[in-house]
Amino acid sequence: MYPDLLSTYGDRGNMLILAHRARSRGIPADTHEVFLNEALPAGDIYLLGGGEDGAQALAAQRLLADRGLHRAVDRRAVVFAVCAGYQLMGSSFFAKGAKCEGLGLLDLYSDRGPHRAVGEVGGEVDPKLGLPTLTGFENHGGRTHLGRGVRPLASVKVGIGNDGKTEGAWNGTVLGTYCHGPALSRNPALADLLLRWATGEDNLPALDETWHNRLRNERLTFTGMA
Ligand code: GLN
To answer: Per UniProt, where does substrate bind (predicted)?
Structure first.
């Protein structure tokens, strides 16, 4: 979604990684980059990345007017949203000092923190999801507060995430995180979770994870999470 507005820190790479991991298993994958003036096409997985405050507010206005993402979630399409995109999933967020309406697709809201959260972020993933340690890079001024209708994606061992205690959130097939990096290059098991949700296929064949694991191990060692 909106690679011209929402793709800081290489978040567009998440699309390439998902397509590659699907095709490597013989699952056909068409990718489509949706620009600001386009209506939302039908899809199985929607990706939203990070963005500066102005871009984030503009994206929210367009998505609220379009309502295509709401319809997609109603039919259980998968949404993976990073940082600004993640904040957009909640009921409200702050951009350039103003409170903005979010999409209300996850039971959470974001306000502003005492300082920007910049650096490595990670921790243990919600056991319900069965994934290894989450690792990423964060850069955001907002703090996110979770309601009862979502579960945290992870507990925080390193960095700030939502509020210094938890990081990210998920409910149904909508999942948000503050992890850039892009997130799925450091967390290939998370990529496969999204593919399993989208395809309903629980047994995806294993792939060669040599390069992902080198990156993961380097970052997990660097942050003391190894
Ligand atoms: N503008 C938002 C914030 O600072 C999101 C930033 C981002 O996506 N990196 O909180």
So the answer is: 116
